[in-house]
């Protein structure tokens, strides 16, 4: 599944947010209670109202949401790339995530010390980014040295790696993160395998005071502008509100949200922004036994989408019986959608759409 690492300077609210996100009623959906893998890793059910509607129509016994993993990556301080604080462990943790949720302190509170002695989320963003970039430069220098013999020997993979590493180094030396590079489609796989820290997609999470959760403030506006300029995502969340929400049963949580002028919990908004940033989407499989959500990247073809369920589904793929989500709802189920002529049989060349209700036929 997808993994999102939560990073940020000390005292910005990372742990508060992590604990809240992984403990809300929504996260603890019946079949997948919050499970602690390690103290700082939490598996969360992705809330999706569509799945509940589909299950209600089909009378599914079980609802199985898709999941996202949050990793609370503590210990970043200035100098982490030099091994200060929990530096090395921190960097190793970041390599393993698909995206970085970067928590920025956008709340004033005289009682909570800021490590740099001032509230300045843009400067904080730079501090962390700089550490990641320094770590990347050092690892690139090391890797280039290790590659040189293979490159001389004409190893094709090594030559490609060297070319990509050198391009990344040029960007980093000019003060730009590796994610600022445009990577050719053919190089995607090799590029991803380099696992550069500053290449990970970033989602800025502005942690604000309770009263500012709905509208944000001047600081969050500045972060939004930065995010926009660099193609990053951004959300405004109050970790304190999320903390309170996580302690309420679902109905009271909804009421509390309304009182705060919010329509959606931070978990939902964070996940949606994360999906957007990573180009993720959801398809469904629906039957009397279970209604289940599956995560794929945008542009995934039917056989590869089937492969998310099981490798055999992809290898033996024959066709995908398909009903768009809206058609399934409008027809009040498969039979109605069929009658309305909304039941389609799609082949190998079909690009799965967000919300598709699919049934795969395959040679086993
Ligand atoms: P971390 O070091 O980034 O993990 O930060 P913590 O989650 O441990 O939070 C540090 C302190 O800031 C704790 O005392 C939190 O209760 C407090 N805190 C977190 N979010 C907020 C917020 O939105 N407003 C205020 N006033 N305090 C917060």
Automatic annotation (TrEMBL):
Cofactor: Mg(2+)
Binding annotation for ATP: 11-16
Domain OBG-type G: 2-257
Gene3D superfamilies to which the protein is assigned, alphabetical: 3.10.20.30, P-loop containing nucleotide triphosphate hydrolases, TGS-like domain
GO CC, one annotated term: cytoplasm
Domain named TGS: residues: 279-362
Residue ranges of coiled coil: 130-157
Keywords, ordered alphabetically: ATP-binding, Coiled coil, Magnesium, Metal-binding, Nucleotide-binding
Single GO term (MF): metal ion binding
Keyword ATP-binding annotated: yes
Similarity remark: Belongs to the TRAFAC class OBG-HflX-like GTPase superfamily. OBG GTPase family. YchF/OLA1 subfamily.
Function: ATPase that binds to both the 70S ribosome and the 50S ribosomal subunit in a nucleotide-independent manner.
NCBIfam families for this protein: redox-regulated ATPase YchF
Entry protein name: Ribosome-binding ATPase YchF
